[in-house]
Specification:
The protein is of the alpha+beta class. The chain contains five helices and eight strands; from the N terminus they run αββααββββαββα.
Length: 155
């Protein structure tokens, strides 16, 4: 059977029937940055853009399951590309792709602004971050609290 719409796909994807996602096995995503920043993060841990006063000044750490921001070997902000590997195993993530019984993206509609700005403390659940999926089931984006991201770094 051919899936006709994104919502049709999501309704068939078991993860979208779950309000929260918690992997009980190793599941990796990547934070993409420059090679020089990668070395600083691996040595001292993540700091948010808000703390550093850079970029959009977001208050969380953003990762992706897809490595599409730059191609291998491309330059990132004048430097070679660096990737920080993050393990999601055991983390409690609010599923932004969750569809309720009325066919609405409940968490996305209510909490997208907090997730995008990294204001995870404004989401009224005990979570480590948020997760959203592409229409083919791959992880699109994960937003993590800084302290959680630092614990989840894979060295």
């Amino acid at each position: 059977m051919i899936t006709k719409t994104y919502k049709d796909f999501l309704l068939k994807n078991e993860k979208n029937g779950l309000f929260f996602i918690q992997y009980n096995y190793d599941k990796f995503v990547y934070h993409i940055t420059s090679k020089s920043i990668e070395q600083k993060i691996l040595k001292s841990g993540f700091m948010t853009g808000f703390e550093l006063g850079v970029s959009e000044k977001w208050k969380a750490i953003f990762c992706s399951g897809i490595y599409a921001r730059n191609k291998e070997g491309e330059i990132y902000e004048g430097d070679d590309i660096g990737k920080i590997k993050i393990n999601l195993k055991g983390l409690k993530l609010l599923n932004m792709s969750y569809i309720n019984n009325d066919g609405e993206f409940e968490n996305y509609n209510k909490y997208k602004n907090f997730s995008v700005r990294g204001e995870l403390d404004q989401i009224p659940f005990d979570i480590d971050g948020t997760i959203s999926y592409l229409d083919d089931g791959r992880i699109y984006e994960v937003t993590l609290k800084k302290d959680i991201a630092n614990i989840a770094i894979v060295f």
